[in-house]
Automatic annotation (TrEMBL):
InterPro entries in the record: Galk_glycosyltransferase (IPR012369), GalKase_N (IPR019539), GHMP_kinase_C_sf (IPR036554), GHMP_kinase_L-arabinokinase (IPR053205), GHMP_kinase_N_dom (IPR006204), Ribosomal_Su5_D2-typ_SF (IPR020568), Ribsml_uS5_D2-typ_fold_subgr (IPR014721)
UniProt keyword ATP-binding present: yes
GO molecular function annotation: ATP binding; galactokinase activity; L-arabinokinase activity
Keyword Nucleotide-binding: yes
Species annotation: Nicotiana tabacum
An example Gene Ontology biological process: galactose metabolic process
Protein name: L-arabinokinase isoform X1
Length: 981
């Protein structure tokens, strides 16, 4: 920094509490500041040695204070989103006032000239309150990271995002590092090169010190500051390789070809001396891999939202190979290592970001202004919360997308998915189209199906040498590489469902009324002999020497919007053990061990269920592309749509003729036993057997279709998304289900006791008085016999429940007490936690009354059209909604939407008449009933506006309907250029 004014300055450098990567890059900036004679106070939660190893100077002062927590990791590869928010609240939100007071006083006490933050939000506000300028130096900001977590936790946490963004807005500017995420809260940006720690020793010196021969290949196993702790085996490495292990515990044993590095070994030197690095993506790992030109074999981290942007950078410079977690844990490392060592990393940018950033910081502290102030902090602040919701949007559906996000999306293609099916230009796409000849089936003119076929054609076209689109997603690349485009492909389609009435009463045997949504999932599948299958490189490397075997390859479009793995593959032999299909329990564990690819259980699980239940044997390789327009986590059965579409496609490709009802029941087994979600069967039945603009009426005992109910032309149903994520795998849904089954068991037991007592009294009376048992109350006896063997709660009428059992059920009961008295609750898909207290009365009452409400609703639909009809239907929906809440399955968002519908209903000219939460509850979508007219749509738009004003979230609206999978059938297609005509 020669030429700068020589004046000793005081810097306060705040370092986030997330991992060591921030601390190590801060070291490099601090080192340059100290070289210029400045004093630096580092506020950090990282160990002292991280700084003292590199900087030995009296001008660095370490203050051990943790002011934010970053992201909490469940393990080395998984971020716990809810725990992250909770810890942040405890660390930075609740004590905020005292933190600000302490930091303002401290900053004044050290007479700081400049506050630097990487990237602690409250530091920026403390600087402003102390009258000191502040600058951030980072590649991401916590408002961006936490915005996605808020989607999981519910919009009521949105104030966290607003506060973080408001804190950042007090910055002068952000020194932005390569591999950056969108950072809307900052007023201005200055880009710098990579910040990389300098090397202390040469490659030759390090190898000599560790006793590694020049001829030996070296892998460095580096999972950052968190020891991975996985068992390592000799056979994991290719022949002749040595692995250097970072962060190993003292008692961890390693094979002879693995070397534990000492805790204080300087990691950058070890990386530069290696041929390949294996680890997780973080800024430090990525920057050092690029700077030292060491290829990185990386394993995806779940819900680590910084990762896609860093991954794009490392792959752009041909320095990265992604390894699936399953292969990491099972030791299938060799194909990835051999592929990585053949790469030629091409990064040619600077690596002196530490020096450049230090110069900028020094200049700013001396009073110079590098920021242009050309951007409005208030506008950027308004964008901050929007970003999190846009990450989860369905492209083409939401409005008001900030310009900065559109730019980021163009730059970073990993965040894009297939164009929305309804905004694709489908003009000219018919059965006689330029893309595919349809050999079987009919696309029925459905816009999303036409769009899907066009997307398939675009994927195929991308294989052409003259096709050049540098923004191809890895999903497109993977799909293009797995299909033999000259062969036939089968396409299936399955919609989501709008739960009009019935909901969680399905597992208690209720009548339900379900409407298929317009949004649907498409699956394209191709079956090939293993010798003809196009395999991804790592799948090919796994093939046995004696000859090719069947492989399942799956691509999920849109997966990266949820930051999960876009591809999955497995050897079909993994589903077989000793000549028989593996158990469902083993399959559940197989998929559950890698959260980034657990989604594949919904698709691959259909194959195991067909093997287990129908005895089908799959020897050919299978390639599957899944593209779903059914939004996840909104209570409209996105999972059932994927399951039904997948099983329909697999059946079609293998010539299996499965009855629609049977197929739905098979799909339920996928969800219950392989995915591990305790849902009823109505979702799969509606997706399979439903028809457009009709309600599927079904009695869930277990799945008896009564028929299709016409929706009167005067009535219409809509769905409005609350923005609160929903999952039937969540603990609330499970506990309510358990409570209902506990209630059923108590009712059965009570009826059995009364029946025995009744029979005993009859016998005694006969003996004493010559009583004739034929004169006994046979009706009462029959009722008790029926109730003592009650299969489904919904077979108990409301009046019998109130007369005989309501007061005998406890409000709640501990699992321990129940098991001690009743042994088991007789539900095969849930287990009782003895330590938990379960609500009983409300979960038991709900399905009994819901079954009655649904029967009344179905009968009212055929009544003469009138306001009274609509009012009665709406009242039944309101009753259902409040019964959900009594069970503990309500949410602030869905309650707000129902209240808004009620306001509209009672306003002048109101044409909406009722609303209810749907599906598994605890968020998700609200179903609304109203008159089929333009006025209803206007009122729904007003509800959207009011909800957004109150919550910051613009609700997605479900409108319209479409055919179920059975009605659609399947398409058998072939590229027109290769079809036989």
């Amino acid at each position: 920094m020669a030429g700068s004014e020589k004046k000793s300055l005081v810097f306060a450098y705040y370092v986030t509490g997330h991992g060591f990567g921030h601390a190590t890059r801060v070291v490099e900036v601090v080192r340059h500041l100290i070289q210029e004679g400045h004093e630096v106070h580092v506020v950090t939660g990282a160990p002292d040695y991280v700084y003292n190893t590199e900087i030995q100077s009296p001008r660095i002062f370490i203050r051990k204070v943790l002011l934010d927590c970053g992201a909490v990791q469940a393990d080395a590869l998984t971020v716990d989103r809810l725990a992250s928010l909770e810890k942040y609240i405890q660390t930075a939100v609740l004590p905020r006032d005292s933190i600000l007071a302490t930091e303002v006083e401290w900053l004044k006490s050290i007479k700081a000239d400049l506050v630097i933050s990487d990237v602690v939000p409250v530091a920026c506000r403390a600087a402003a309150d102390a009258g000191i300028r502040a600058v951030c130096c980072t590649n991401f900001s916590w408002d961006f990271i936490y915005a996605d977590y808020v989607m999981a936790a519910g919009y009521h946490n949105r104030s966290i995002i607003w506060q973080i963004a408001e804190d950042y807005s007090h910055c002068e500017f952000v020194i932005r590092l390569p591999g950056y995420c969108p950072m809307p809260a900052f007023r201005d940006v200055i880009d710098v090169p990579l910040v990389v720690r300098r090397l202390h020793k040469t490659r030759e010196q390090v190898r000599k010190e560790l006793g590694i021969l020049d001829s030996q290949k070296v892998l460095i196993y580096n999972f950052g500051g968190q020891p991975a702790g996985w068992k390592l085996k000799k056979e994991y490495l290719p022949e002749g390789w040595i692995c250097l292990v970072c962060g190993a515990s003292e008692d961890q044993e390693v094979p002879s070809n693995f070397v534990k590095l000492p805790k204080d070994f300087y990691t950058p030197d070890a990386i530069a001396a290696s041929d390949v690095m294996l680890g997780k993506i973080g800024y430090g790992t990525t920057s050092e891999a690029l700077a030292y030109k060491v290829p990185l074999v990386f394993v995806r981290r779940d819900y680590f939202n910084e990762e896609p942007f860093l991954r794009n950078m490392i792959e752009h410079y041909q320095a990265g190979v992604e390894m699936i977690r399953r292969d990491l844990l099972t030791g299938r490392w060799a194909p990835y290592i051999q592929r990585a060592v053949a790469l030629k990393p091409s990064y040619d940018g600077g690596a002196n970001g530490g020096e450049v950033a230090a110069r900028l910081l020094q200049d700013t502290a001396l009073g110079q202004y590098h920021a242009s102030h050309g951007l409005s902090g208030a506008r950027r602040l308004g964008d901050a919360i929007v970003l999190g919701y846009q990450l989860q949007r369905i492209i083409g559906k939401d409005i008001a997308i900030p310009a900065w996000y559109s730019l980021a999306q163009n730059e970073l293609s990993s965040r894009t998915q297939l164009p929305n099916k309804e905004v694709v230009d489908n003009s000219g796409l018919t059965k006689e189209n330029d893309y595919f000849a349809i050999l079987h089936g009919d696309h029925q003119g459905l816009p999303d199906t036409l769009g899907f076929l066009k997307s398939l054609a675009e994927i195929q076209s991308s294989c052409s040498p003259q096709y050049n689109n540098k923004f191809q997603t890895r999903e497109h690349l993977a799909a293009a590489a797995m299909f033999n485009w000259e062969e036939e492909i089968f396409v299936s389609r399955a919609p989501g469902r709008l739960d009009v009435m019935g909901g969680i009463a399905d597992y208690s045997g209720s009548l339900v009324l379900q409407m298929p949504t317009r949004e649907a999932c498409h699956v394209a599948i191709q079956r090939n002999h293993p010798s003809k299958q196009k395999l991804w490189k790592h799948a090919k490397a796994r093939q046995p020497e004696e000859g090719p075997t069947g492989v399942l390859q799956i691509v999920s479009f849109g997966s990266e919007l949820g930051n999960r793995g876009p591809t999955f593959d497995m050897d079909l032999s993994d589903f077989v053990e000793d000549g028989q299909p593996i158990t469902y329990e083993k399959a559940y564990n197989y998929f559950a061990r890698d959260p980034a690819q657990k989604w594949a259980a919904y698709v691959a699980g259909t194959i195991l269920v067909l093997m287990t239940e129908l005895g089908i044997r799959f020897e050919d390789s299978i390639s599957i592309l899944v593209s779903s327009g059914v939004p996840e986590g909104k209570g409209v059965s996105s999972s059932a749509a994927v399951e039904v579409a997948s099983m329909t496609a697999v059946a079609a490709a293998h010539g299996l003729n499965i009855d629609p009802r049977h197929l739905a029941l098979l799909c339920q087994k996928v969800e219950n036993h392989i995915v591990g979600a305790p849902c009823g069967v109505m979702d799969q039945m509606a997706s399979t057997c439903g028809e457009a603009d009709k309600l599927l009426a079904m009695v869930c005992q277990p799945a008896e279709v009564l028929g299709l109910v016409d929706i009167p032309p005067t009535i219409r149903f809509w769905g409005i998304d609350s923005g609160i994520r929903h999952s039937v795998g969540g603990s609330d849904y499970k506990s309510v289900r358990v409570g209902a089954f506990i209630g059923r068991k108590i009712i059965k037991s009570t009826a059995s006791v009364e029946l025995r007592s009744s029979l005993s009294n009859i016998s005694s009376a006969q003996q004493i008085n010559g009583f004739n048992p034929d004169e006994a109350d046979e009706n009462s006896k029959d009722l008790l016999e029926t109730e003592a063997s009650l299969d489904y709660l919904c077979n108990l009428s409301p009046h019998r429940y109130e007369a005989s059992y309501a007061t005998r059920l406890p409000e709640s009961l501990s699992g321990q007490e129940f098991v001690e008295k009743y042994l088991d609750h007789d539900d095969s898909v849930t287990t009782i936690d003895k330590e938990r207290n379960y609500a009983v009365r409300a979960p038991t009452r709900h399905p009994i009354y819901e079954n009655f409400r649904v029967k009344a609703f179905k009968a009212l639909l055929s009544a003469a059209p009138s306001n009274d009809q609509l009012s009665a239907l709406g009242e039944l929906m309101y009753q259902c909604h409040f019964s959900y809440s009594a069970c503990g399955l309500g949410s602030n968002g869905t309650d707000r939407l129902v209240s808004l519908v009620q306001e509209m209903q009672h306003s002048e000219g109101g044409t909406l008449f009722g609303a209810k939460i749907t599906g598994g509850g605890s968020g998700g979508t609200v179903c609304v009933i109203g008159r089929n007219c333009l006025r209803s749509n206007e009122q729904l738009i007003e509800i959207q506006r009011r909800y957004k004003a109150a919550t910051g979230f613009l609700p997605y609206m479900f409108e319209g309907s479409s055919p179920g999978a059975a009605k659609f059938g399947h398409l058998q297609i072939r590229l027109r250029s290769s079809s036989k005509e």
